[in-house]
Amino acid sequence: MPDLEELVQEISRFEAIIAEWDESQRGVVVGLKRAIEALHKEALKRLIKSVKQESMTALRHSVKDEVVYGVLLYHELVKSPIPPLRQRIQAALDEVRPDLKSHNGDVEIVAIKPPDTLEIRLIGACSHCPSSTLTLSQGIEQIIKAHCPEITNIVAVK
After folding, report:
1. Among 22, 101, 152, 153, which has the minimal tally of Cβ within 10 Å of its Cβ?
2. Residue 133 predicted with pLDDT over 70
3. Domain limits of the chain?
4. Side by side, which strands form the sheet with 117-124?
5. What is the DSSP letter of 140?
6. CATH of 85-156, one of 2.40.50.100, 3.30.450.50, 3.30.300.130, 1.10.150.120
7. Residue 9: is its pLDDT beyond 90?
């Protein structure tokens, strides 16, 4: 059985060959590809439905396989992957920024230290505000943990 890299290389070789063909020949291949993909998508839908009825655990386990996940994602049968951690942290901080900016303050990421630590810096008026500890614990920490449950340790640095 070929490994994943060999399969990807084989697909790339065929795509390179087909790219040299004239438009009518490529149209035939594209039509064949669409028909095969539609058949595969329908088969996968039926398989997922059947496996769901038997064992959601087995289905979740199967989707953790990168090849299975990639094929299901290609056929739009699973949701897009979770955005990267930094992007989710930024989204969380963007939610609290309006409140901080209304007090002439802001927050910035200093460091992300896997697996569970985020260092942030309060800036502007927030950096020396007597309520900054409360702002951090009641506002910023809660919103970050809601967006990024893997972050359990949030450290404010000067």
Report:
1. 22
2. no
3. 4-74, 85-156
4. 105-113, 117-124, 153-156
5. I
6. 3.30.300.130
7. no
How many whole angstroms separate alpha carbon 79 and alpha carbon 94?
24
**Tokens 């920490």 -> residue:** 141
Per-residue pLDDT, 114: 82
Alpha carbon separation from 116 to 94, 125, 133 (Å, rounded): 20, 28, 20
> Which structure tokens are listed for 44?
């996968």
Query: What would the pLDDT profile of 52-102 be if each residue is shown by its tens digit?
Result: 898 888 888 888 887 888 888 889 898 877 778 889 899 999 998 998 888
Query: For residue 142, which phi and psi values (nearest 5 degrees)?
Result: -60, -45
Mean pLDDT: which of 3-7, 21-25, 65-69 is highest? 21-25
Record the tokens describing residue 38, joined without a space.
Answer: 């539609």
Distances (CA, A) of 152 to 28, 107, 114, 145: 54, 18, 10, 7
Give start and end residues of each alpha helix (H) in 75-156.
Answer: 85-101, 132-134, 141-147
State the DSSP code for 131.
Answer: T
Q: What is the DSSP letter of 21?
A: S
Local structure of 82: helix, strand or coil: coil
User: What is the 3-state composition of the chain as percent helix, strand, coil, each rounded to the nearest 5?
Assistant: 65, 15, 25
